[in-house]
Design goal:
The protein has 97 residues and is mostly helical. The protein has two helices and no strands. The relative contact order is 0.04. Residues 27-37 have a biased composition (Low complexity).
Length: 97
């Protein structure tokens, strides 16, 4: 008696599941699955992601250029300090030839 009840219930279950998944897909809209979930996405999403990636790369490039400039300034400052130290030691006869 239990067996026919389960068979009838399982026969109706796939029909309900297909409606629930269809409603979920339709709720996403026509844009397709977003790339972050593994889908290819539509052209609008790909273009938007490309623009965001480009903007991030540009900001990183600007930051690297600023860091290189600061590094060059620090090297020049260290060179001036080294020359100053050399001049101080020469004046005090620290270096004897």
């Amino acid at each position: 008696m239990l067996r026919p009840t389960l068979t009838k219930a399982s026969a109706l279950r796939p029909l309900r599941a297909s409606f629930s998944t269809t409603a979920r897909v339709m709720a996403d809209g026509a844009t397709g699955a977003p790339p972050k979930t593994g889908g290819a996405g539509d052209s609008w999403q790909r273009r938007e992601k490309a623009n965001e990636d480009y903007a991030i790369r540009q900001r990183e490039k600007e930051k690297l250029l600023e860091l290189k400039a600061k590094l060059q300034e620090q090297r020049q400052h260290l060179d001036r300090l080294a020359e100053h130290i050399d001049d101080m030691t020469k004046d005090q006869d620290g270096e004897k030839k």
